[in-house]
Structures are given as structure tokens and as C-alpha cells.
Amino acid sequence: MISECSSDPCSFYMGLELILASESPSLIQHFGASHLIALAGTFLIGFFVIYVSRKNQLSKITTAIVVSIAFLLITAYPVKIIARYIDGIEIDKDVLFPLQLCDVAAVTGFFALILKNRLCAEITYFFGLAGTLQALFTPSVCYDFPSISYFAFFQLHSIVVIAALYLPLALGWRPRKGSVMRVWFCGICYAIIVGIFDFITGANYGFFREKAEGSLMDILHPWPYYIIEMSVLALVLFFVLSVPFLRQSQSKN
Asked: Hey, where are the domains in the chain?
């Protein structure tokens, strides 16, 4: 005997409800297979676009690469929100706005590539390699393959790191004199503004209320001391990242 539901649309809607009510994807294992594949893909894509652009300066190929990177940067946030919705992951106050440091680096990277803004290029370079690169190697909240959120996470973090390297290595937009303190001051302004926002809303953008779990922040002291430590560490890393360009400017002189 054929059940009544088999000839009725209710079976389809019941199945859809089961899919939407399913559990969220599991978190990625640090340096597990899916993590290593994503890191390898980031390296290969980054190497490829930089190599091709260096060999084809002022060509349509380079223009296409620039536009593609810019597109992936500016769409990273909406893709993240859509991915969480499809994967059945809660869209809470900690992801509702693009206020994480990596989100800011993605936006500045877009403006650096499209509007050729040098300050945005410097912010992307220092924020991307001093901050986003660490998140790429030790992701705190990254859902595992094959969830859509897995691809959304690496779209943001991988492309920010690639853009941070692409700007100086492929386009030659190197940090200018005074860029370390200039970008560090921008970071302090970011910390003040986002920190106040966190205090008012109870969110944790920039991890100013709680540390990112399973990250390098675990070795720092408890709140609020780790915020001061992060600001000092950022300044040190900025100086380290500026060293290659200091040597180049000295050799030219």
C-alpha cells in the first residue's frame, strides 16, 4: 500500500526541514588533511598570480587577476553570511557585521587594487601578514570540508594574504617611509572603535573581549593584558615586515 504522503508535496517539505534542522558542520582540525589542502591551494594560487603578473606587467592578464582578487575580497563577507545560512550555522552578533581585522583588510585590499590607494595597500600588507596569516595557519572558527563555510573562510583569509603579497611583489606598491607607524596608528584607531562597539553590544570583534580559541593568542596573558600585548606585538611584526623594503631603499640610495 502506497502511503498518502508519497503523492503529496509534504514529503518534500519534510525532507527540507530535516536538512535545515541538521547539525552545524564540524570544526576543522588544525593541520589536518582539509587544512593542509587549503594552505597548499593558497600557496599555489598566490605563487601563480604573482609569477604571471610579474611576467606580464601592464597586460590584460594582470588586469584580469587584479579584478578577480578585488572581487573575491569585496564579496568575502556576504559569501560568509550566505554560507552560514546554508550550512545551518547561527548568524550571531559576532559575525553580523564585517568588523573583524580580516574583514577590514579585505576592504582595504579592494580599494588598494581598484582605486590604487597607497594607504589601503599598506594596511592590507601589514594587517594581512601580521594578522590574517596567523588566522590562516591557526583558524579559531573554521568549519570543515565539504561545508560551504569552509570555502568561505579560506576565500577571506587566503585572498587577503595573497593580496598582501601581490601588492608589493607583483604590482610594486611597497610600503612608504613612515608606513609602520602610520598603519599601527590605524590599528590603534580600529581597536578603540571596535572595542567600544564590543563593549556596547557584547560582541567580540577583534577579540577584544575574549581570546580566539585555539590560536596563538593562547600564549598571551588573560584579559585585558593580552590586548596591550597584541598591540606591542603588532608594532614589532610591522617593523619586521618593513625590513625587506628598508634594505631595498638603502641599496637604491
From this structure: 26-177
